[in-house]
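$ ./design --mode recover --in tokens.txt
reading tokens...
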């Protein structure tokens, strides 16, 4: 039986590598630490980490908070949407007040007494303590439509803000400015929207409407103080938005933040991408058209060359055929002429051998004609020879 091999002694435990401190609850605390990584947080063993962007680079970028210009543009649109019908209501109330003012003076005079009112005027207000109650009661009935119109403006703004923020998280102005109101805490939606609508209404039109209502009712000093307070609150609400957080006091109280939707930039990016694709398609189509034109030109040239070659090949054949036809026609013509000559010769021989012709030739008259012809022919030959030799002809 073989002896067991010696077991090497255990190495003394080395000091654990320092591990970077990671806040509890962060995503990095859930990643295992690779052995021998010198404390670097990595879910992969040493040397096996995939090449590529870090996991944080793959996460979507957090939404950007809306700047002051966008928020001011959206606020201006929303304010106009609320104030246009609100001012129409207030204008109606003022018109009603002016129209009913003579009746109000008549009612005060009737309630206080015309003689007492004349006495009050002539005695410079002496004894006019009781006119205040009569005037106040009549004034409340006269100014009630104007008071209701002033107080209807904040109610109109609250309904407008709350309904759109709960429904879409965006008012009409924020839609045009490409911004949106989102809650800071995930899951909450209705409460932050309603709270923000109430706080916005209180800061923008609530305190102003309340101060104007007090002034119209007759509490002029209190009304002015409320209007001053409304101006201070408006600026106090705006100043925190000038910081890096871009959150107004209303945002902080309601737990909301205004972010950019990036809709316009996405539309611009998609439009640019579509333009690039369209231009690329146009370039490809142009190249394809040019290639098609080149191919068509090549095909036409090849067809013309083939036709030329075929014509060149057919031309000698046609010439040969024409020459052959001409030679055949010449041969036929020559044969026909030979046949005609043979026929004429045969006819002449037959005519010569004919009995009447023979009798005419051997007759005495024919013999005399032949002798005369021989003489004439001999004389003509002599004249021709003498002319050629240069001698003058004989007188005979």
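writing sequence...
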């Amino acid at each position: 039986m073989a002896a067991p091999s010696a077991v090497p002694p255990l190495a003394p435990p080395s000091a654990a590598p320092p591990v970077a401190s990671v806040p509890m609850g962060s995503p990095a605390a859930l990643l295992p630490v690779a052995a021998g990584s010198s404390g670097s947080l990595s879910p992969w063993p040493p040397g096996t980490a995939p090449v590529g962007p870090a996991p944080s680079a793959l996460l979507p970028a957090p939404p950007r908070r809306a700047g002051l210009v966008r928020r001011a543009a959206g606020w201006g649109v929303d304010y106009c949407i609320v104030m246009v019908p609100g001012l129409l209501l207030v204008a109606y109330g003022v018109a009603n007040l002016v129209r009913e003012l003579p009746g109000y003076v008549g009612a005060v005079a009737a309630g206080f007494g015309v003689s007492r009112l004349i006495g009050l005027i002539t005695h410079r207000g002496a004894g006019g303590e009781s006119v205040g109650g009569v005037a106040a009661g009549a004034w409340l009935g006269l100014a009630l439509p104007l008071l209701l119109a002033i107080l209807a403006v904040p109610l109109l703004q609250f309904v407008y803000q709350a309904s759109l923020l709960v429904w879409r998280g965006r008012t009409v102005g924020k839609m045009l400015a490409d911004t949106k109101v989102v809650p800071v805490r995930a899951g909450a939606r209705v409460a932050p929207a309603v709270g923000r609508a109430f706080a916005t209404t209180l800061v923008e039109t609530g305190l102003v409407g309340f101060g104007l209502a007090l002034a119209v009712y007759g509490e002029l000093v209190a009304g002015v103080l409320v209007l001053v307070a409304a101006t201070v609150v408006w600026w106090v609400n705006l100043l925190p938005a000038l910081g890096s957080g871009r959150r107004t006091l209303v945002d902080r109280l309601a737990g909301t933040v205004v972010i950019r939707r990036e809709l316009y930039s996405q539309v611009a990016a998609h439009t640019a991408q579509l333009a690039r694709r369209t231009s690329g398609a146009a370039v490809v189509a142009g190249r394809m058209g040019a290639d098609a034109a080149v191919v068509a030109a090549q095909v036409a040239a090849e067809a013309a060359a083939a036709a030329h070659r075929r014509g060149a090949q057919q031309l000698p054949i046609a010439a040969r055929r024409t020459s052959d036809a001409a030679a055949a026609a010449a041969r036929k013509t020559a044969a026909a002429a030979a046949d005609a000559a043979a026929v004429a010769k045969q006819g002449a021989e037959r005519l010569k051998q004919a009995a009447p012709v023979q009798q005419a030739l051997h007759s005495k008259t024919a013999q005399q004609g032949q002798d005369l012809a021989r003489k004439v022919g001999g004389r003509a030959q002599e004249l021709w020879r003498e002319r050629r030799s240069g001698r003058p002809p004989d007188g005979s």
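exit 0
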